[in-house]
Amino acid sequence: MFLGKVRILLWPWLLYSLLNIFASAVITLHSDFSLINSLKNLVLQIRGEGDGLWFLAALFVAYIPFYFVIKLHRPRFAIIVSCMLSVISVLYCELFPSELLPWGTTSLPWHIEYMLQAMLWMVLGYYFKNARAGFFEDMLDKHKNIFTCIMSLAVYTIIAYIPCGGIASNIIVSYVRTFTGIVTLTFVSKSIKPNRLWVKILCCIMPCTVKLKI
User: Fold this and answer.
1) Is 112 helix (H, G, I), strand (E, B) or coil?
2) What is the pLDDT of residues 37-77, one digit of tens each?
3) In angstroms, how far is the first alpha carbon of the chain from the final one?
4) Which residues of 17-43 are buried (b: 16+ CB within 10 A; e: fewer)?
5) Who's near 88: CB < 8 A, 6+ residues apart?
6) pTM check: above 0.85
7) Residue 140 dihedral angles phi and psi, to the nearest 5°
């Protein structure tokens, strides 16, 4: 499992990042470009500091606690633990004084601040995929149509623009918004016919798409 994630996540991240850095060093028109600082940012992986493929590094880090959580072999307990850890991570991002860190934000090396938040959705996806008798999968397949796609997208749009005040309401809305977005994308993806010409065209022009497998 670990070696598989290195191949799927870390290798594309490392190769693209190094290519981008060295290409910038050669063709950049900025005289203040620093190769050393760019390599340092690559190693540290602080959000917003030269981390073009940050989500690949964040996913790789999130797989570490994910691996141990699913080994609990108790789905309800694993989901509860994941929820608690995710909320702790969100509270850190909301409450931790950013001025205490040298780079002036709550970001941590290798996107550790997102690790537990990402793990929650990975755990939910894992149990969704492995649900007994494909219950959730069958339920989505049964209700997939243009109406559910439009309705879920409308609900997501409304939630995305709900004005929130206070940390608690922000946290609740963020989780509901993310869940609604996942449901919307799932409905849309299940409604796409794989034999359609435009899908084949997209597959041809995006050969470097990273496939994430749990």
Assistant:
1) helix
2) 878 888 888 887 777 788 888 888 888 889 888 888 788 88
3) 9
4) beeebeeeeeeeeeeeeeeeebbebbe
5) 116
6) no
7) -65, -40
